[in-house]
Amino acid sequence: MRRGDFLSHVAWTGAGIAYALGAQGLLSGRAVAAAAGGVEFVQISDSHIGFKQAANPDVAGTLQMAVDAINAMPSRPAFVVHTGDITHLSTAAQFDDARAILSQLKAPLIALPGEHDVLGNDVAGYMKAFRIPGSKPGGWSSWDANGVHYVAVLNVFNFEKMGILGSDQLDWLAKDLSGIPASTPVVVFTHVPLYALYPDWGWTTEDGSNALALLQRFDHVTVLNGHIHQIVTHEEGNIRFASADATAYPQPKPGAAPKPGPVTLPRSELLHAIGYRTVEIDGNGLRFEDRAFG
Amino acid sequence: MKQIGLMILALLLAVPAYASAPTTVEISNDAFHPAKLTIAAGQTVTFTNRDDDAHTVTSSDGVFDSKGIDTGQTWRYTFNKPGTYAYFCALHPFMKATIVVKAGQS
User: Beta strand pairing status for B24-28 and B31-33?
Assistant: First the structure.
């Protein structure tokens, strides 16, 4: 499973998805970003602190690898976003352990909850440890930086209906987006995919289409999520989606196994199947690169 | 020993089959086994997670919620009130099952 080899260099531009194979494409993209004063941030996801099974007996160690790699980047990212499942079982000890590692980041952290972080529909542990600064009482948030509108939405409650945003959050999103010009690039962070990626395994948001309807009028929308522990890209009109690798362990490709449980690989292959993602945005659009640990 | 054996036999004869059946639910391969379990009111069901992943036993009507059951762990719940209890896993909503609780034996 060396997905890093064929999907690690993906660049998105306003014209659509361009595959820039090899380091040369990456370097040229960086040069453009620097010249245009672009912004760079990092996405990490699905750390599952507290998980101890064979698929990764040391999830704290692999999250630490991500933090160390981010801190060693040549230029400090504007922020790091964690797209959920910070912990495995929402316990106070697991939140403490996650904070001990993530607080070492030398860039601001924006952490969304996954369903593993709100077990029992109890959001208190997450809110205490990782609430997004300035977020609404429900935990969702938006902010503007460098001409980009960022939105963090939560779709991990009432999970019997798969991921669901709910009417309160959708009403807020409609108001939040109403004053934004269509030419403004919009980047949306979620845990569960906003579209029906694979509903049989719960990889969908029941009312996600309502959010996508609000986003359709924008020229450039990117939705970055976690939950499925693998890189999957998708396009619907001007909306582009990219699920990220976990820092903990991979899950099977949709339908490739009878169940979506953790995939156990030899250590060297595990390090190819987990990692973090760097994202650059400038006048030419948004590009990202998924960087495996091995 | 013989007396005890007779007492157990008497108990077994006095109650319906579902009351003497094992009141356990195994969670494996992202499924509850059995998917439908019938018990008598007052009985306790033991749920055991045999998967590498965590699961929950969460009532669809909000009656009970195990929260996270880690690999190898068990969770117990006593069903005192007759009825049909649909439940699912809050981490894997495609995992659905039912406990049917019949009126208890005196």
Answer: antiparallel
Distances (CA, A) of A231 to A44, B5, B10: 12, 60, 61
**Positive/negative CA dihedral, A253, A210, A42, A111:** negative
The tens digit of pLDDT for each residue in A222-266 reads 999 999 999 999 999 999 999 999 999 999 999 999 999 999 999
Amino acid in the structure at residue A277: R
Phi, psi of A166 (to 5 degrees): 85, 160
Distances (CA, A) of B103 to A294, B15, B43, B97: 59, 11, 11, 20
Determine the Cα–Cα distance for residues A3 and A72; give it in Å rounded to an integer. Answer: 24
d(CA A29, CA A228): 28
Provide the ipTM.
0.82
* B62 vs A: CB within 8 A: no
Q: What length does chain A have?
A: 294
Query: Who's near A282: CB < 8 A, 6+ residues apart?
Result: A32, A33, A36, A37, A38, A39
Helices A92-102/A59-71 angle, 10° precision: 30
> Residue A136: what are its φ and ψ, rounded to 5°?
-70, 165
Q: Smallest Cβ distance to B68: which of A90, A121, A264?
A: A90
Residue A111's nearest CA partner among A46, A37, A22 is A46
Quick one: tokens of A232?
């999957």
Chain B contacts in chain A segment 111-170 (CB below 8 A) = 115-116, 119-122, 159-162
CA distance B93 to chain A (A): 5
pLDDT band at B20 (very low <50, low <70, confident <90, very high): low
How many other CB atoms sit within 10 Å of the CB of residue B46? Answer: 13
* The overall pTM is greater than 0.80: yes
Interface residue B63 vs chain A (CB under 8 A): no
Contacts of A224 (CB under 8 A, 6+ apart): A43, A81, A83, A187, A188, A189, A190, A241, A242, A244, A277, A279, A288
Residues with Cβ within 8 Å of residue B2, at least 6 apart in sequence: none
